[in-house]
Amino acid sequence: MSDVTAGPEPAGAGDVSPEQVRERLRRRAIFLRELAEARELRRRVTPHRSRRARIHAALRRRTFRIN
48: which DSSP letter? Predict the structure, then answer.
């Protein structure tokens, strides 16, 4: 049998300082904020895509309606 560590933590993950955790969370918050901003910009810049997506979603819903 091979030595496999149990759990999703990579080797050395237990020695993370609180400053590193705060920095990681700060970078993650910035990334998520920028991602939301990019999605909103894409939705505003290309309204035909969002309109087409709404129409297709409505057609998919109608397709599976029983009555």
Answer: H
- Please report whether residue 9 resides in a domain: no
Residue 23, domain member (yes or no):
yes
- Model confidence pLDDT, tens digit, residues 19-66: 999 999 999 999 999 999 999 988 788 777 778 888 888 888 887 766
User: Could you list the residue range(s) of the whole structural domain that residue 53 is in?
Assistant: 19-63
Confidence at 5, pLDDT banded by 50, 70, 90 = low
Asked whether residue 6 is assigned to any structural domain, the reply reads: no
What pLDDT digit, counting tens, does each position of 26-39 carry? 999 999 999 999 99
Q: Is-contact 10 4, C-beta < 8 A?
A: no
| Gap between the Cα atoms of 13 and 24, Å rounded | 13
Cβ–Cβ < 8 Å for 43, 50: yes
